[in-house]
# Entry
Amino acid sequence: MANLQPREESVDVVVIGAGAGGGVVAKELGEAGLQVVVLESGRRFAPEVDYPTDRTDFEIAAATVFEAEDPRRDVHTTAHPFDYVRAKGVGGSTLRYLAISPRFHESDFRTRSEDGVGDDWPLSYADLEPYYERVEQELGVSGPNGPDANPFESPRKVPFPTAPHPFNLASRVIRRGADKLGLHLVREPVAIPTSDWNGRPACINAGTCGLGCRIRAKSSIDVTYVPKAEATGRVEIRPSCTAREISLDGRGRAGAVIYHDDRGAEHEIRGRAIVIAGNAIETPRLLLLSRSSAFPDGLANSSGLVGKYFMEHLAVFSYGLFDERLDPWRGIPTGGMLQDYYATSRANDFARGWTTVVSTSSHWPLSVARRSAGWGAEHKARTKRLFGHFVGLASVGEQLPSLSNEVTLDPLLTDRFGVPVPRLVSAPRENDVAMVRAIAIRQAEILAAAGATETWGGEYSPGTSAHYLGTCRMGADPKTSVVNARGRAHDVQNLFVADGSVFVTGAGVNPALTISSLATRTAEGIVGAFTRREL
# Structure
């Protein structure tokens, strides 16, 4: 630490990460009157400048926007094939997410009690429901209400803030197949308002959500929570600042965060409370890096479970080709969901289930040409046949937590700052393999019922869900969990975790809404702890 800057800083709360967890916590704490500094390892993006989705060559120009300028920033190693997909920047992975925002089901919080697998959460759907409401209102989530609502959805006290997106031609074809099979295709909830919301314009259906929303219609954290956080005058966002260690003070509490700025210089900032909100990979990495005599195996790791129970979602993609013109790119990149296969069924040789989502992403000319087989005239003919005539189905399958899947520190490889990189161990287990097999069969059935003349896909590629969960699980028992139901570390009174790493189970839905809802609840707990003078 020879390069450590002599300047000392101290604030009420240091938040590490400015995504679906950290950005939410910062806004809530700032509005409660606390002084907050947010350290974000990625840079800040200006949508109107950095997202060239209005250019004719957008498929090329926008494809690399979220890649690190220095490839050594995001180095990692894997024990098994695993595609680690993420975006770093103010807004985190919400910068490039497709904004699908369903709630968990009630059963997702008690899988051990109901299905004999996984573990029960230390909170219930009823505990989290008020926070779901708050986040949905903040983001302007669009979704179906009344007779068009999802019949499998958990109870709601208020309707979705904005109306659902309409079905496009591709979605209507899939609904035709779903209807034949007696399934229930509904519009999925998305954090993309269909009417002007909180000073931002309604969606214009450009379909480039995954490349960044140029007009700020998509409710990513950088255009929703972050501006409100900064408007308090008590929250400072520091981009391109990467935490490398959390040190303890003389009382055994988390005393300071040591971090690198973009030039590599080290700095230290002290906080009365510290919130880690990286993700389920970066958060355990930081805790494991923060070794001391009090915590030789990593900070807050007396349970030995930091980094354990790493989960993702089982993402299986299948495609169907149709004679009729579908123009799948019209509208947002997703076109509906069905949850008929969500719950555990005695007819299956596996527990739990999945959500099926209509995928209409990346159906533009160059993208289609790149995925077309052949060469020369054969390639041109295949591209012409595919363009505007095929649609995809994607699954969000629940991977059961396994102690064998984990995030550790690589013993040899370091990043650009000389810090050990994360090593990922993630392999599908018996329940996962059986579910993937069933997902592929069901997807093919839906496409065939819809009238597809050709189908392909059905494979699972680990990591491609980009939904990474577990590794700092919450629970009531310090021996079997890392944090409590408010995200507070059992071992360190002033340390909190507010990201997907606290998940006990993964459920079968996209996690961003639940991450933000849990973060809202955690922030409320932090404010309460300050009020009680515990921090």
Notes: The chain has one domain: 9-49+80-531. The radius of gyration is 23 Å.
